[in-house]
Amino acid sequence: MEFESILKTAFPFIVISIGVLMGFQIVLMIVAYTVLGERKLLGWMQGRIGPNRVGPWGVLQPFADLLKFILKEDIVPDKSTKFVYFLAPLVALTCALMPIVVYPFGPAITTVDWSFLPYGLGEGVRALPLTIAKIDVGVLFVFGITSVGVYGIALAGWSSNSKYSLMGGLRSSAQMISYELAMGASVIGVVMLAGTLDLNGIIYAQQQSTFRWFIIPQFIGFFVFLISAFAETNRTPFDLPEAETELVAGFHTEYSALKFALFFMAEYVNMFTVSMMCTVLFLGGWYVPGLSHIFEVGSIPYAVVSHVAFIGKICAFLVLYIWVRGTLPRFRFDQLMNFGWKFLLPVALANVIFTIIVVFFVNR
Amino acid sequence: MNMFLFAELTVPDPNVSVILPEMIVAVAGVIVMLYDSFFPKQRAVSGAIAIIGLALSAVVLATMWGGNVPATSWNGMIAHDNLRLSFSFVFLFVSAMTVLISTVWVERENVPAGEYHALLLFATFGMMMMSAGNDLVIIFLGLETLSIATYVMAGLRRADLKSNESAMKYFILGSFASAFLLYGMALIYGATGSTNLTEIAGKIAAPNFPVNFPALLLAGGAMMVIGFGFKIAMAPFHIWTPDVYEGAPTPVTAFMAAGPKAAAFASFLRVFVLGLPLVAGVQASGYLHESWTTALAVMAMVTIIVGNVAAIMQDNVKRMLAYSSIAHAGYALVGFIGAGMAKTDQARDEAIASVAFYMLTYAVTNMGAFAIVTLLSQKNDRRTQFEDYNGIGFKSPLLAFSLSLFMLSLFGLPLTAGFMGKILVFSSALGSGNLLVTALVVVAVIGSAISAYYYLRMIVVMFFRERTTEWIAPKITTAIGAVLVIAVIGVFYLGLFSDGLIQRFSRPGAAVITKAEK
Amino acid sequence: MVGTALFFLFAGFAIMCAISMVYHKNPLYSAISLVGVFISLSCIYVTLAAPFIAAVQILIYAGAIMVLVVFVIMLLNLDDDRPLNRLRYLYAIGGGLGVVLLAQTLFVFYAVLRAPNQPVDPNTSAGKTLTIGQAMYTEYLLPVEIVGVLLMMAIIGSVMLARRLSQPQLELVVEREEELRGEDD
Amino acid sequence: MDFLSNNLLTILILLPVVGAVLTLAHQAFWKQESQLKWVTLGFTALNFVVSLALFSKSAVAGASGFFFEKNVPWINAIGTNYHVGVDGLSFWLVILTTFIMPIAVLSTWHAVEKKATAFYVFLLLLESAMIGVFVSLDLLVFYLFFEASLIPMFFLIGVWGGENRIYAAVKFFIFTALGSLLMLVAIIGLYFIYADQTGLGGSFDFVAILNAMKAGNLILPAQTGMLLFAAFAIAFAIKVPLFPFHTWLPDAHTEAPTAGSVILAAVLLKMGTYGLMRFNFALFPDQSRETAWIFITLAIIGIIYGALVAMVQPDVKRLVAYSSVAHMGFVILGMFSFTEMGMQGAVYQMLNHGVSTGALFLLVGFIYERRHTRQIKDFGGLANVMPIYATVFIFTVLSSVGLPFLNGFVGEFLIMVGMFQSQVLSVTSTVNWNYVATMIAGTGVIFAAVYLLWMVQRVFFGKVTSEKNRSLADLNWREIGLLAPLLFLMIYMGVFPKPFLARTASVVKGLQERVMHQAGGTIEKTELKPVSADAEHK
Amino acid sequence: MEPNLASYLALSGILFTIGCVGVIFKRNAIGMFMCIELMLNAVNLTFVAFSRYYADTTGQLFVFMVMAVAACEAAVGLGIIISFFRNSQSVDVDDASLMKN
What we know:
The structure holds 5 protein chains of 5 kinds. By secondary structure, chain A is mainly alpha-helical. Helix content of chain A is 66%, strand content 0%. Chain A has 12 helices and no strands. The relative contact order of chain A is 0.14. Chain C folds into 3 domains: 1-82, NADH-ubiquinone/plastoquinone oxidoreductase chain 6, subunit NuoJ (Four Helix Bundle (Hemerythrin (Met), subunit A)); 87-119; 128-185, no CATH class. The radius of gyration of chain C is 25 Å and the shape is extended. Chain C has 7 helices and no strands. The termini of chain C are far apart. By secondary structure, chain C is mainly α. The interface between C and E is large, with 88 and 74 residues.
């Protein structure tokens, strides 16, 4: 059968495509509501109500925003470098979305029998992983992609041909490079304890470890990671590339309409990614202690509960982000650099060395 | 918790004692740096630490010469043989001299001494690794360590455009050359499936010739010749040399002319002579070997001629010395080709020793000459033209006669080190009895005759010309004085009583080498 | 089939980006093109079963080195390249060198093409992160150590080069001004 | 005494070095630079006295035929030894060197005012190197001294020379260095050929190589041999200097200070001819014989050319310099006649040239000190003002021209006769080219008489043309004193050449037989007596 | 046709050539530096391709070292370029012509 063989070849791609769509859908929805949540929370913190006109309690606000972005006039600065100007937001969002493919949304579903599928498509399929792509260097992949993300900002700043933008771009690239080091160093401890770079592998390693969550043995690493994560995502108190009060809006001063929306989305997706990494590396990912006693490991309910727990942990981090934004003032640039190079990096390295010693003696 | 698969592990072979000299140098670098950060502005102390480190390393190296050291260690990455030992001594000597020479300059230009000395020590570390490395990885990393340190050192005089320019040219062309070298290494790896030189040599020498792509050996060899050729300033890859040498601060120039060049020769020798050996009976290997020796012989001729002829036309002393260093690379290449064409292992070892000895003589002489140039040049190397040396001969006889001595030694006058070096490389080359090599030696000899002109010019301007402007002889500091004494004694010692040293360099019997245990 | 398509896709993209890098006079365009090359090479590494190298390629080249380059280009605010004036003869040299290297590439290509094709064991562990990590700390311990020294030295070096110049003259001016003000007061 | 005879040559080499070191060290304890000449004079004189020990009858020749031989290993790695010895060929040259040196020092008694320390140091070092050249029997050691002698001379010309000194000094150095470097290659080549063919490992030892050649263990391939021969020959031909390599000589002579010119003429030029005889003839006899025609041609061109150019020189010193070219041409001619008489004459002429031309340069130097010019046109009628000077000068010129009873005659005559008897050049049915060569060379003698005597006539006779010349002081006692031994030698060598010739006879005979494979032109056969003046003198 | 060793090597060779030509054609120090990086990358591809062919880790380790070296070179090289720029207000190699024969 011609059709059958084609289907058999195409089936994995179809499955992956569905997975990708679903993954993106989940993430984008969460991101959209993070924006709303931020406005609400900030409003409450400042004794305001926050958006409440569009839909009940303002729940449809994100869609209204989206509509506005789409319909607004797109202004392109006259002296800008056009190609790069258009490229920058695309780069930013693409790089932000790429890591979704390694998100460990939940444990693999292994108990379902897939043989009911027609044309024997389910033959030999034993597990349905809740990860889009299985890359055994997941951690490196995420870091790599996010580090490319800086181009979006830097190029946006350069191509706008505006001094505010340029300053923002310069700041962001300096900041990203500086804090990436501390971030990378802080993860090494976890990777050493886990013995793998695979995100799911790290989660499994946490299940088998004495402490269940790596935040306990690696609390220094956790804090360093968290702080660097704020810097990497350009969030307050490290939002110098945007810095409304000094740089107007930093790198995206000259952007408007949909292109601005892309940057905006990229920032929130990055937040989500970083929260995800934090969860996976330090808080056990989707793992809920004791859940295996209630549901069979690999069954659908187990996966669903795990997934919900995973999203919950991430949301907790997102709330933390918003909280910090509501409370802390912005750093000065030299303070930011000093803090990154002279405090975070040494601490992270000390943590690495300490972990090496511990691992060495425990493993003997 | 732990997911290592211990079954697959290669047993590491960390023999620290073998790389102890290198480690001492690197650690000394770190100490210098730390000391400088806690007690800044104590230039003399940081220099002293550097010298102590280098001396300590030399002592350890000397004990290893006769010691019971495995021939290869660190999983075959470090080779311990006369090539390594003799060249390492040259490097240590060069670096120690550079530290001494720099004292004047560091003071004059207000250079951060700690970092400078640290860089110098790391560069030395790189050089020593280059001579010890028995694996392409080590050679590459050593080379890069050396190069990167030297790029920075060349650009140390940051307020001076000349120095910046020098550093930039050196950086760009140096990394360009590294890329070629690396491509060559990749192709050699592709041809043999290994980066270990012992293994590569074994494969080339094996009777059944288990090399997958012999053609890649040829291409890789060519690329590596380009890469190494850049580093040793072999024509036509010498174009960077004059500008870089002229622009770099004088002590750094001294270092670059003697140290990195010797280091590049060390690994060049190791890769080509020991790694791609001449093996009778294996046609492909013989063909490969012949092609690189022939190519090198031709290039050596060009190098000698270009270096000498261009040196004649220079008005700047540093530039003249730069071209002369190109010519000297050509002379050393003569010995190199001798090593490549040697028919017996003994002859090969002797030829290698002759190159090492040549580099030593060149280092001694060169260091002395540059010490004087450093002393005489003012801030930002303003006084490095020949005119600035007019008639200083009898105003500062000590400096002038030492400089003349070094010039004559560079020329290769008998009784001096230069002569001994030259005669050794020439005889090791003539020993192969090849016609091309004989022609090469003749060219080299004609080249040295030409070189008489510009070396004598130095003497001529110093002694035979009259000085029109006022000139105050600079005070000879202790450090520079020490360099001069060492260099003058060295020139005569190497010229007259070098027998023991040559024997040491060439005779494997001097070192009791045991096979690696595993 | 898929492998072939991917290879030619990425190879074509890499070559296009490389040519665009050389062609563009604007350094930032060149930089962007180079990032394109890096990314497509990284994808090719994935097809060559070297995921670790692929990730590190992105991380180091695209994420660190090129960001630094872009940063510098932005900092210096460079203009477009001017055409060669003093060094016009370099066009000839460059062209010659290019031809020679292409010839060598062909030479290598045919040398390897005619060679017997050794089948690769699909279960090989080479390229796995674990294998690389193990080799790094057993067989390749020494190179890794040297890389450590190298990195430290690069840090020292770049700090030395980039450190702000002390400007004694400026300080003098300031001091004099202060003195003057003191007198005024 | 044993010590002395064992180490005599080493002492001869080292004594001047010790003197140089002491001279240098004077600044530490004795700050009178002007008195240094006494130190130098002392050391050179002492060296001369020591060198007289060479005459000692107790000396015995070693197996290789060399006296006072010393052979100690120096650098084993390349198999070179410190091997020195002296034989008939080098004997007189060593004596000549030590003899000329005190005279050269005396000649500069008041002339050197600036940088006297360095001047004397270089003189002493030069002496050491020159002696080294004549006594070393190891090729490498020979090369070493050969090159080492350049540096002091280079400085002497360059620092204390005339106006054009830099050009002259550099030219002198580069010409000689180029030749000697080629020789170095040949030496190394010989080393490897020796190693290859004898299987004894390489050696630079002249005696060892020569013995191997004589024993047939070392046979040079024809082409290689010719190349090696050429390398050696060019080095020495430049030093001699043979036409067309002579161009450095007039410059060097003219610009050099008096002492430098004297030493250059008396000793340094002899290194070339000595080297040719010692090394080229001994090591490459066949090549020497085959290429003799080239050398003879060049020598004759040199003779004629030197004479013609000398004739038109306006400068006395330059004239004398060109006369050197001509004279050295005679020496070469004699050597390459390969007859015993010719070669004897050549050796003898070397000494003659040293004495006569040395004296001429001294005399030119004296007048230059007084007048600070050497142009012939500035003089005229000097005989009226300076009678002693004129007498001595004319006497020396006659010796140089080759007047019978004076030394020049003996040498030139022997060379002519030797060449006449020679069989090196081809003899066709119509022309015996040996005769032709002799005849053309003979005209050179006439030319010499012409240009020298013409110069004498213009300088010394006639009226005093320049007012400045009227007040010139005649020679003082120091000058007369240092010329006296030279004048004595001119006469002595002219009338009683036997002791000189006797010492060189055996070596020359050996060389002659080595080259021609047969005896020829021996002195006994050709009845020297009526020719040589010594019979009549008795 | 599956991509085999030869095609990877050809790609690497082409990239190397482009980089090399670029180094010579570019007048801009940063541009030259980028071309050198391209050359290094081409070499890395060769290493990885051979590493795959021989199923040997060595090549990939070499690549790793090369990357570390490239990072160091970038740091130092850009520092040099900046310090040149500070003094000359240009990174054009044509302007680096203070020293000539």
